[in-house]
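Troubleshooting log. The previous structure file for this entry was overwritten by mistake, so regenerating from the original sequence record. Sequence copied from the archived sheet and checked twice against the printout by T.R.
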Amino acid sequence: MVGAIGGEQILNMGSGCQYVGLVLHEFGHAIGYFHEHNRPDRDDVVDIKWDNVQYGFKDAFYKYTFDEADVQGFKYDLTSIMHYENSAFTNGYCRPTMLVKNDPSYEVTPVYLREFSPQDIQKINKLYSCQTTQLPPTECVCKDKYPKCPEWKTWGECHQNMMWMTTNCPKSCRTCGEPPSDCQDVYPVACEKWGKDGECDNNPMWMIEHCKRTCKECTGPTQLPGTCQDKYDKCPAMKTSGECHKNMMWMNTNCPKSCRICGEPPSDCQDLYPVACEKWGKDSECAKNPIWMNENCKRTCKQCTGPTQPPLTGATQPPIPPLPGTTQPPLPGTTQAPIPSLPGTTQPPQPPQPTTQPSGDCKDVYPDQCPTWKTYKWCEKDQVDYMAKVCKKTCGFCGGSGNCKDVYPQYCPGYKQNGMCTDPNYLDYCKDVCKYTCGYCS
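Regenerated output below.
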């Protein structure tokens, strides 16, 4: 029964249901709440995939009218203990029955791993006119009993071993009434791995935006009102790598001082290809190929005050960018380098010829040279990371578009061929980095 019926109401939990989250869910029904995804306004937030629902269970997804349901003035809550997970009552492995409309990749945590959300508590207090609006206070100060509690939390023990952890590590598991942090990683599994690989420094702009927690950017912007300041310490480094031009909108908002948009005249002395120009400069291309380099790599070739010598003669083509450690195309039979492996793998999967189709904004940096490089099998072997940057279209490394794209389009087809898209050991990782290839966009 839903709601108080007078006297005692016995709740029976079947075998396999002995989880705190499931018990709280059933108690939620007993005190008067039905499922969150049955709210009258649910179509504004989630999309029900009716074709994926098991036969005989579609009634679990029907919505009420406003005459039948009282939402108590609260907004839709994806974290409510009364909300089903994405694949509840699915008719096939990993087929979603519900997707969040503004972010189809959003994962609604399974009920058995959850507790009452802050809004659940507020709603119950309002329904029963309780005076308190938070969890009961702890006995004294909210402290962890063991120094390793924060570490155990990062391992997922707050959910996997909930009863013991909430008793012994209440501070780390945030069971003392504190509101949950809004500083989260967009890709929790992958961000942790990328952080360990040094990507917060190697690729700061993207990582700060998508992996805030891992990169320790949880304090938020530091810009003062009325002042021209960068929001992040890494802004000067991002400027030197050419991000002010490559990612103008994000950089102008977050790094205005470094990008000189606060009134100072911008310098017209820039490299058109910041990363490549720096490398070509180190390879002495300013001297070997001065006409093209002085025009396209002014900053690297120190041509910022204008030409001070007669016109030069020589090559007028951009240098053919050599790849790391190569001086000529690989010969037939060259041993293929392994691609990055996931934690715990013993043999990295070998990528097949990419099959993804390029999107409209998928272009080659070097359209004339890329087809030739492809014949050297650079799209498949040691140079695959480089080719993913400069020959996306030719190599077929576009990997989707918009919110539906691969982080590693050059490797995802190989992951899929080796069954990692559905392997429980790599499923979460592939959902983060190969959502287009693995079919996790919808």
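Residues 220-226, 306-360 have pLDDT under 50 and may be disordered. Archived copy saved in two places this time.
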